[in-house]
Amino acid sequence: MNFDSFRLAAATADLSEEPTAREHADLVEFRMDLADEPLDALAGYDGDLPLLVTNRTTWEGGEAPPYGRLDALAGAIEHDAVAAVDVELATLRGRPTGTNDATVADLVEAARERDVTVVASVHDFDGTPDPRTLDALLSAAAAAGDVGKLATTAGGRGDALALLAATHRAAERGAPVATMAMGEAGRHTRAVAPVYGSRIGYAPVRPEAATAPGQFDLATLRELVDRLR
Ligand SMILES: O=C1C[C@@](O)(C(=O)O)C[C@@H](O)[C@@H]1O
C-alpha cells in the first residue's frame, strides 16, 4: 500500500469491527498485541480494507509478550490482506526480542518480497524531545522503513508545536513520516499534522477502545483532516 498521501487507519483489536470502519477509514490497524488469537482472526478476515499489522512491545506501550512477537508478525504478513507492518525503530536497530524469534532482518525481507509497507515507529510516552532529537528520530525512522512514524507525548502546546515543526521539516526534506502528539495538549496535532505532511492518522473504531491518549473518533478525525487539507 502506498502512503504517498494521507491515509486514515482505524485502530482495533477486533477485526469484526472492519465493516464499521469502512465508511471513514482507508485501512485498519490491527493491534495484534491487544487481540486474543490474532493469527486466527487474520486467517478468518474477509473484510474490504487493507490491514496494517502492529504487535506492539511492552517497552513502547503495547502488550505483546516478549517471545514470538516477530514470529507472529512474520505469520501475519503472509496474509494477502496485510498491506503494511509496523516495526519499532528500536527493533529495526537490533534491540533484542525473544529468543528463537524470527529476526527483524528476516521479517523486513519477507515484507519486501510481499510488497508489504514497513512503518518504522517510535513512541515516547514521557514527553517530546528537543527539536534536534525530533529531527534525528524522524530521519532515522523514515530511512529504516517506508514511512517513519513518531508519536510523542505533549505536556503543553509548545511540545505539540515542536512536533508539528519537525513534521514540516521532515516533509520539506522529502522524508515520508507520520506524526502525532499524544495526550490532551497534543490532540489537535492529529488533525493538523497531515497539513504539514504526516502520512498516517490513527483513530479507534470504537471511541471507548482508544489505542492511545488523545485520539479522536474515526468519523471526527476523517472530517477534520479532510476539511483542513
Ligand atoms: O503507533 C500508533 C499511533 C498511536 O499510538 C496513536 O497515538 O494514535 C496509536 C497506535 O495504535 C498506533 O500503533
From TrEMBL:
Keyword Transcription regulation part of the UniProt annotation: no
Coiled coil (residue ranges): none
SUPFAM superfamilies in the cross-refs: Aldolase (SSF51569)
Catalytic activities: 3-dehydroquinate = 3-dehydroshikimate + H2O
Cross-referenced Pfam families: DHquinase_I
InterPro entries linked: Aldolase_TIM (IPR013785), DHquinase_I (IPR001381), Type-I_3-dehydroquinase (IPR050146)
Active site: H123 (proton donor/acceptor), K149 (schiff-base intermediate with substrate)
Function of the protein: Involved in the third step of the chorismate pathway, which leads to the biosynthesis of aromatic amino acids. Catalyzes the cis-dehydration of 3-dehydroquinate (DHQ) and introduces the first double bond of the aromatic ring to yield 3-dehydroshikimate.
Family: Belongs to the type-I 3-dehydroquinase family.
Protein name, per record: 3-dehydroquinate dehydratase
Originating species: Halorarum salinum
Binding, 3-dehydroquinate: E29, F30, R31, R56, R190, T211, Q215
Lineage start: Archaea, Methanobacteriati, Methanobacteriota, Stenosarchaea group, Halobacteria
GO biological process, one term: 3,4-dihydroxybenzoate biosynthetic process
Entry annotated with the keyword Transmembrane helix: no
Enzyme class, first EC level, given as a word: lyase
